[in-house]
Amino acid sequence: MAISDKQKKLIICLGAALLLALAWLLPGAGLLNPYLVQILMYAGINMILTLSLNLVNGYMGEFSVGHAGFMGIGAYAASILTVWVLPRSWALWTFPAVLVAGGLAAAVAGLVVAFPSFRTRGDYLAIVTLAFNMIVKSVLENLEILGGPRGFLGMPRLTNLFWVVAWVLITVLVLRRLVYSNFGRGITAIREDEVAANLTGVDTRRLKLYAFLISAFFAGVAGGLFAHLLQFINPRSFSILKSTDMLVMVYLGGVSSLTGSLLGAAIFTLLMEILRPLGLWRWVVGPLLLVLLMIFRPQGIMGFREWKWLGQGPGVRGQDAMP
Amino acid sequence: MLQILGQNVLNALQLGSVYALIALGYTMVYGILTLINFAHGDIFMVGAYLSLAAAAFLLGLPLGLPLVVVFVGAMVFSMLLTALLGVTIERLAYRPLRQAPRVSAVITALGVGLFLENFTLGLLGPEPRHFPSLITMGVWEVAGLTITPLQVLIILGAAVLMVLLDLLVGHTLLGMAMRAISYNRPIVPLMGVSVDRVISLTFAIGSAIAAAGGLLYGLAYPVLDPYMGIRIGWWAFIAAVVGGIGNIRGAMLGGFILGAVEIFTPMVLPSSTYRDFVAFSLLLLLLVFKPTGLLGRPVFERV
Amino acid sequence: MSLLEINDLSHNFGGLRAVSDFSLEVREGELVGLIGPNGAGKTTIFNLITGVFKVGQGQIKFQGEDITRWRSHRISSAGIARTFQNIRLFKELSVLDNVRLGAYARHAYSLLDAVGRSRNFRQEEERQRQRADSLLARFNLSRYADTPARNLPYGEQRRVEMARALISGPRLLLLDEPAAGMNQSEAQELIRLILEIKEEFSLTVILIEHQMRVVQNLCQWVKVLDFGETIASGPPQEMQSHPKVLEAYLGKDGALAGEESGNVA
Fold it and tell me: Which of B8, B239, C102, C152 could form a disulfide with B255 if both were Cys (CB 3.0 to 4.6 A apart)?
């Protein structure tokens, strides 16, 4: 049975609306185990992080190792707004704006990485991102006003399943539209051959800037959600270990695939939860998984492929046709 | 004032020696495989623990061994086993990826590093271990400076290892093969050199030197924990990049610069907690303005 | 009026002089050849014109405008397109996407247009798509539209590269050894194709080529380079017997000149 574009669009809209409604109603009515809700929220936050990192590491083919830095900036910026700036009684209504502000703060920090990316790439750019992550963490540790190494607290628990699902949907929507446009094609062309891309008329610098800013923005939003879920953040939550977790999720799910990022984040979150009884040994599994993955299935679960509902759709041909 | 400065220069040299030893491993592997071996800091950590185990074992024997014997025994034991570890890691994790995109190998290296850390943590628990003191002689006063025999041992020991390595790379067949591979890998097999063997030996030597660094570090800063390799590894890595990654003399230079950064940061900034900030900012600036490092060679892109 | 004007262009690679005092004037509609032995600096000149290398010395003017310091994408949008000696397609992308990317700058819309799927976005995408389709059809590539570029045979990859260069609507086309690796009949085919597209797209062409037969059949005049220096210029027939050219290719005595003349370049 063939489905027309219009019908497909309708189904997607209805599906999204249904998802949002469920995310709103189920936990509210107490129909979902709070522990499960908690895991779902972490999975959603991880999805946003993974999607955002995939834009840079997958589609653009650069290698960012410091994404937790952006997440941290978003988390701290959003928390400062809710704790110090905005009146507590407004918190519920201003939360989306607070998250956007956190994302914007992270995007501004993205400039620190975007500009060096004009001149260096590959290993050197990877080191730049790493240095960025370390600097963010070190600055946070030294800012006594933000609690230094002890961390920052006092955020109300504003993050709920509804907001998490909403932001996952927004991230998917924006990235999908970006990927299937000149911008996305240009970003992928940078991965394939930067010089040739520039020579065919692609303003590679501008696109790198866009990619880093958008990627940093969503990582920052995820940071804000994380901070208002945990109600407590400290610099160590945004260390290079967090960045490595994101890498695992991206490469587990598969590069250059939105579906892959969603799957990778979901599986990783679930796995970490299932392995909780292992205690300290749990942290051995993630790295081991990463190494095995690189050796035996470097493209991840969905590398370069897309579930057809997330792909370009029947009306437009393109990247999803890859074998 | 001058005395404090002199004392700190000495401390910087001591710390820089350890950084330089570890930086050598990063730089050798990068030179030969263009792989950032992010696991190297953790190989250093394992080396330190192995030294500790050997030293504790030898001290525990009812033979009353002289400390020199214990020191040499621990060094030989940990260098051999750590070399074996390095070779095994290369064999199991990196070699299957030699034809794969470079990113895969770098990610694998990150994974191996985390694995070593967390495996050690699972095995030994999070409590720090204390390194036995093997150098018990007093201190010397020279021109108002306090010099400990340990300091002399570390600086001289590191210097000897570095000179040996420099000679090895510059003047032996193995060194020539290493340089040949880093220059042009495809033609090396044509000249009758086994690339696999040279790469294995590179990992062995780099890891052994890191183990020696681990022992010296353990003597000077006698508290070991499973995550010690992260910070020291990153610092040594910065040292390698600052000097120009792939360049052995650059790694030594970088090591001493980073040692100086660490020692002198608290003298200039309010607290030693700024040292990471200073080191990584230095790295960032250097990468933006002189991406090849101080002694690195420029890389052309072919069009 | 001259379309492209290069004055006293020089370029060094770490002390090695790759191009030295190179000047060139190309008029609208001309088909010019750039020949010379390997390492003579021909591709370097292309890289300087298209902004891949920064110009140290000299000046490049296109349509009267100084483009010496422009970045590649701007030069491309101004109307200079090129192909590469060793084909450089976006290998994992589909043929359609490869060609579409050539029109990247022509069909501009903002990031907000793309994320909001505005009318401007849909119109430009549709126009770009149509242009790409018609170019694919012109180059006989329609059936490969969805195939990743790396899966195409060599000859087809060359055509994709050409389609990608032409979709931007360039005035000047730089072809870097388009006949490399081709046999005689394929080269013959190529000559015909180049002449056709030159008319169809009203192009001016500069060609780097090793096969003398191709140069003779195509170029109105050629410039011969050796070690970065211009050693001769004129109609291709004259170049074959030019003493300096023979010397550059064959060494001083030029003993083989007679037998090999058909394949000199």
Answer: B239
